[in-house]
Amino acid sequence: MKTTADLLVVQIPRLRRYARALTGDENRADDLVQDCLARALARLKLWKPGTDMRAWLFTIMHNLFVNECKRQSKQADAATFAVGNVLQCYDNSEMDARLSELQSGLQRLAPEQREVLLLVNIEGFSYQQVAGVLGIPSGTVMSRLHRGRQELLKWMSGEPTARSGLRGVK
After folding, report:
1. Cβ-proximal residues to 47 (8 Å cutoff; 6+ apart), any chain
2. Which of 32, 49, 84, 110 is 20 to 30 A off residue 165, Cα-Cα?
3. Burial classification of residue 67, based on how many CB atoms lie within 10 Å of its CB (0-12 exposed, 13-18 middle, 19 or more buried)
4. Is 36 within the bounds of a domain?
5. How many domains does the chain have?
6. Angle, alpha carbons 22-25-90 (nearest 5°)
7. Average pLDDT of the chain?
């Protein structure tokens, strides 16, 4: 039987991948993972054995990231998707060009849509798990995922997207 520490350690590669996708920066991602693990260890008594350790850790990481973004609210878009960090194994110029397009498309998405896309498509979370991690209803997860996929598909096919036209006014 695995110990709690074993369950936590197994999730570190997934936490690192998600943190890199959120931050777009390896150093910030490592800091985010470290903060997440420190908070999880400090609050380990709050985790209920038998529940999904991965979802619990991703919830902690998401909350830490949102708090960091709020602190740095002067930056227009704190979350970026670093495809180059996630998919370095391809050495094909055509694939590199498509990955660059994908990265640009993901960066153009609203952060809320990007988070849902990453959790569902990269991390393999169910809609209910994403809803729990982000603290939103599962219907909202589905609509953000749908809108995000549609925007990304438009971007990848060269069609104008909602964020490519007029800018919002604060």
Report:
1. 4, 40, 53, 56
2. 84
3. exposed
4. yes
5. 2
6. 90
7. 77
How distant, in Å, are the alpha carbons of 9, 11, 67, 132, 134 from that of 47?
15, 14, 21, 14, 17
Distance CA 98, CA 41 (A): 40
CA angle 148, 122, 99 (to 5 degrees): 75
Q: What's the pTM? A: 0.60
Residue 87, number of CB atoms within 10 A of its CB: 13
Tell which of 79, 104, 119 closes a domain.
79
Sequence-distant (6+) residues with CB within 8 A of 56 are 40, 47
Domain enclosing residue 145, as ranges: 90-161
> Do 3 and 49 contact (CB within 8 A), yes or no?
no
- Asked if the model's pLDDT at residue 169 lies above 70, the reply is no
Check residue 165 and give its pLDDT.
46
Domain CATH for 30: 1.10.1740.10
In a domain, 167, yes or no: no
Q: What is the pLDDT of residue 92?
A: 55
pLDDT tens per residue across span 62-116: 888 888 877 766 444 433 443 444 444 444 566 566 666 776 777 788 888 888 8
